[in-house]
From TrEMBL:
It comes from Mucilaginibacter dorajii. NCBIfam families: PRK05465.1. Its cofactor is adenosylcob(III)alamin. It catalyses: ethanolamine = acetaldehyde + NH4(+). Keywords: Bacterial microcompartment, Cobalamin, Cobalt, Lyase. It holds the Pfam family EutC. The basic unit is a heterodimer which dimerizes to form tetramers. The heterotetramers trimerize; 6 large subunits form a core ring with 6 small subunits projecting outwards. This is Ethanolamine ammonia-lyase small subunit.
Amino acid sequence: MKRNIPQEIEPLKALQEFTSARIAIGRVGTSIPLKQSLDFKLAHAHARDAVYSVLNIDHLRESLTRFELPVLHLHSQVADRRQYLQRPDLGRRLNQDSLDQLRDLTTVSSDIAIIVADGLSATAITENTLGLLKELIPLLTTSNYKLAPITLVEQGRVAIGDDIGYGLKAKLSLVLIGERPGLSSADSLGVYLTYKPKPGLTDEMRNCVSNIRPKGLTYKKAAKKIFYLINEAFIRKLSGVELKDNDGLLDAH
């Protein structure tokens, strides 16, 4: 039996090819079809699982050895996942052991500190970090940027990159972090760029490239965009709201 599609839904069907958002799903009476209802509940479960997922530190550390950089394991001031969700402020600062670890490290100044933090989806970090860095790090090294040790951070928020970048004497911090899971993207990775990181900075000092994943912004395109922003940050000696992403405009001309 052919399913009747309401007239107002039919023009939107073609858009399903371009998005994973729930559009033109139809209805049964005053509700949505059973399959779409079950799909929604499954996506919601995946999103909740992503929020409570944990980093596999050993696996990540082993994967990152291919880049021939030291790898540090740090932790925020958060004690557990429940506290992480209730106290965002504690996820923005390193705990004392991690601060001591950075302080005891013999560190010379570097250009870029790459920081990998679980954020709100360790799943996104596990699935996307290596793919992105395989595209990005060669761009950085061939351009003679000096890289600090890579840091893996548990229970971290974006601003924790300020403590780490400052502690590693880096001119720029690059935070790879799991984004808040959506109902069609529990694996979305975000990258935050901050020039001259130091404790106490606020979000207007950062640039963000988001939705990095195979079904979103691909690793190659994301690496190109991040590399462009890094170059612009070093040229203009700033980041955040004053640093505009004009990469697409340049391509258009």
